[in-house]
């Protein structure tokens, strides 16, 4: 039934009261909605925040809504107010919403009423409206109405002795499903609310511990103790506030919902059992003495309970009808005693001034306080000559006593620690003529005493929580929190009398209420972040969680190895977080990026082992199963190797028997096929390939011989292997050895999940986005359009939207009920450049963040008080918004709160939207280095390194090693040769290129380590020589060489490389290291070292691949030489080319014979002149030995050229043939 009855209007005039009234015509009884009696409403004597209007509903009622109105036809109305409620007319409780004392928006004129439906219903008899803001034109004016319905329940008072025992009909109960609910109120922070247990160790306990609610449940542990069923969950805080709190426990098997005051925690119990086995009874209010093994001690509950229900049984009603055992109660009552405490609530501008004895030689003050702030003034009292100050300093109580009579004297004492924990703590300070004593929490054994050689003369004034503004000094910190049971001169102060005008003064305090709020309950710090708080706010410590941000919501790690690859990372171990901000923790994997597609490898916990009889073996930690499932779900391919070694231990019991061994995969499904086979086929690999040792069986081990069955499981929807069950190991002589390899997956479909929006009206729709208190959105976009909406989701007034506002700006806008908020991030370069850009947006109860391309960022703090819940109702639209132009372009990898939306699946069935997007190379082509070519693919790109000397996914891995001859044919007018080398041996031949004739090209290190280039291209009697400067290149450090020729111009470039690279790899070269060799488009080292690829490279001796090569560098020219040959080339390697190099073959034609003879004579003359010039002039000259001309071949010519090479022939052989 709807709970919306009018409750205030039918009440008599006497049910209304107020702090004050202007006159009788403005009395509180006239404050009824839409009534014109008296002067038309209530108006207090003064318009300030100490005024209140109170209603006595005559009985406890359930309240669901409230409404206000200004005084009839006047300038008096209330613009804002707070709402308090109570059962007894004391110990008021402020209505809170979204973690704050809520301030309701009220009226802007005198006649229109404003109604507010409460976010949660309350139960109370007394209500108070406290105006916080009012009309500037007049005064406070108020008429009100309250909506709700009747409420009745049996209340039971617990005195700390009595326990209610509810006996079951059977001696033992095996319970699969539980539904338990109750309400309680107390001033004690400890006490058992309910308890039940069984002989087998099962138990269920709900108790208060330090004013927090603790639920402990155990559905059973196994006999070996390896499976522990104990589960404990805590909820709430400050529950000793003497207000009603509601608890509901719902359990089905191991799934539990634990609700305290509208906040629900859902969890699964530990262990693997589903039933709760209880014996005889369940008790409320304490634990009945028992000899059961799991019985535990605990204080009995002191306070009140109502509406106690246990699995459909109304326990409070059974107690009233005397159907349960209540013999332990001394005096069973069905009413709740009124609280005797009178708390006072302080904020940053509050103080309470009380009076005491004057000029007395003894000072005794005590009080109880609770706060979250580590610092604040508790008490200040001036002495006739000096003063006493009691403060909270970094969580401990400190006392400063100082006297200014004759000479300045000061005494400091302190005690306690961590007293800003929100709990009630007591302080007692006693100062006499000769000593002072400070006692915390009534523990006199740990009281701190100090001798004071001064005379105490009390001043008679005691300031609690603060001072007058005129008396405050710079750096002064007021107390924020609650106090109660204040004693001055050993007398309890009657604060209610102070409120009614007794001696004393106060400012900005809340009397008869404690509105302290625990901002860490519920804990908004996600993923295990540690919450700490002050009076106004909370903060989260995220260190070690793998997350960051104001609430530890944003993941630190990338979602996959694929994402790391496209950030330029190389193969290594990485932390990944597949579900982003979702509940799953990050974990470490191995990322292998040496192939076109990245391999992700996750090691398991099952090494090769011989299991005992009928064993259930876990291959992975249960905590990792969900993470591994996310990897297999998004991967393109997964595999896992399994092996079963056996001797008289059958595996699948083929061909027709029931399997003795099976494995459990994803979703806890059993599978009866083995590696190398597939789903639905009860066979091993040999059964598929028909090569089992005994053809009668489909597995080698089924033949009862010493064999092995191994293979790869490749149906990824069944992976990973979580458990193995081995059965046939109980026969005499049976042996089995089980091995489960790591899970290996390739690709990440979520990372490349893309949709293309081709028309402004095209969009995709998804279910409503659920992100009430915490929401994050991330995606990539690419467009050539100037603006468009990426996504939008609407509520009744709330909304969330991300859009491209201009060619250089992205905006994130939302409204959670406090008015629209918009964050805008601008880029210095255009965003509509048809390249991928990343957008990340997050909103939580503390802040909103928008980030673009991981660099540009804007943060907007949430208001200190206001709505925090984002409530959406419409579908989520991607690519368009209501009434606005849609997005034209591509959206990729859209994640919302850690869940990747499948854009491609929706795009396949949506007009105007297509799956995939072309043009990845425009954004990622820069990753293809060293001349690699970017190749477009449907779901990504790859780098083609075939025309470079490099390899790897980004053409950055240079091949290094030593090899023999490689043959190619060329007739060149230009060429380019690059390579890197390092060596400590000289002289030596680095590169040698020869032809079938006497032409050759060589790069050598001479005996002094200098670099020299020699070549003979025909037409010259002596080879042309270029000598590099006098630097020693055989210094063990890496060097890059780049030689290029265009017609007659030769450029030589040599540059040393950072030696740290060589030291890092510590390569033990033969005599040196050669890497990244490329002659035009020929990469001989790469061709020789690539396995499985045919090439013209031949290897002499043993060729070993190494990582000794240096990083690729861009090298400016260092020297150039003018080539007199005019048609030839240069240089280097440890292999030989067979080439026809730059030769002009003139075909004699009889009809042109005369012309040919003339040309020949001219050419010879030019060659002679040029040769003569270069022998005597220029930067470079030849020093060829005379024997070079008579050498038998080009190889011999280079050797006989320099005497130093007489010693290098054997060394060269070592280099060439290792």
UniProtKB/TrEMBL annotation:
It is a single-pass type I membrane protein. The gene is cntnap2b. Residues 1-149 form the F5/8 type C domain. One of its GO terms (biological process) is cell adhesion. The keyword Metal-binding does not apply. Disulfide bonds join 890-917. Its main location: other. Belongs to the neurexin family. Residues 155-336, 341-514, 753-917, 951-1108 form the Laminin G domain. SMART domains: 4.1m, EGF, FA58C, LamG. This is Contactin associated protein like 2b.
